[in-house]
Each structure stands twice: as structure tokens, then as C-alpha cells.
């Protein structure tokens, strides 16, 4: 998924963030198909001219929001690890899964995965982002003599991880991020003694 790179002032970045935050809130409230540009600018407390400085239309802000979150899912899953350094799974703790905290901090967005009338294609993004990350940048050292670095196994791991996270969201985030991180670590320890991030 392409990621737009622009040189924007901090004020412009804040404005865009407020538009995307308003858009996310409105989808949660009304459903994607019932949100208009007028709704977004009214919720964000800007005018239409300001919206059109940054976005062509509703599909444009939709694509940027999806792309931004897709890239952040990948980034927060790896940014706590030193490239090329082997990590023993037994040494992992609740701070080892940055993705879980990121999802908890962005619950409004991830609640969109639970809606029937949501951003088109969104349901595929979380497992696809995790799979791309595993496939492109993670090498696992298995417990025993198993090939856990095949694309098929990494796809299985990605969908399993996404499934547990979305079940957590579906249940209202009743477990703390620490509890969810510990569960994921326990599952990883059952199949891998370590991993390396490229």
C-alpha cells in the first residue's frame, strides 16, 4: 500500500490529523457510506476550502488513512528491535509488542474493523500488514525441526495474530495491553526460540 510523503508544516500535519480523527469518529457513529465531506469538516471544525487544500475528496482521505495506519502497524511491530540482532523469545516481556499498545492507543480506528459499514477493504489490512512484516523482515528460529519461515506458516501466524487482536477489540478491550502481550508472547514461545528483524 503506497504511503504519501509530503513536506508539511506541523500545523498542516495537525490539521490533517484532525480531519482523519473526525472521519474515524463519524464512521464509528454513522457508518462509512453515510459520512460526507460536509460531515467531516463540521466535526473537525474547519471549512471545506481547508479540507480541499489537503484532500481531493472522501476516497482520497480514506486512502490516506488506510495507508498511514497500514504502515504504522508494520512500523510499531518492529521498532523495538535492533536490526540484525537475535532476540530470544524467553527474554521477551510485555513491552516487546509495540503493536498491542499502538492498537490500544488507537482504539477508535481499530473499532472500524468491527463495523459492517466500514472502509472498503479494511478487514484485510491488519493481517496483510502483519504478514508483509513477517515475510519481509522477520526470520524465526523454530522450536525443534520445523520450517516456520515459509510464506504459508507466516501467513498462518499473521492471521492468527490479527484474529486474537480483533477478538480483543470485539470484547471491548477488557484485557489490558499487558495481558494481551503476554498471551502473544506465550504463543510465540511455543513455536520459536528466537527471531531476527532485518
UniProtKB/TrEMBL annotation:
Check the record and name the Pfam families matching this protein.
TetR_C_8, TetR_N
Does the keyword DNA-binding feature in the UniProt annotation? yes
Report the Gene3D superfamilies cross-referenced here.
Tetracycline Repressor, domain 2
Question: Which key words are in the record?
Answer: DNA-binding
This protein's source sits in the domain of life called Bacteria
DNA-binding among the record's keywords? Answer: yes
GO molecular function terms listed in the Swiss-Prot or TrEMBL record: DNA binding
Q: What is this protein called?
A: TetR/AcrR family transcriptional regulator
Species per Swiss-Prot/TrEMBL record: Planococcus glaciei
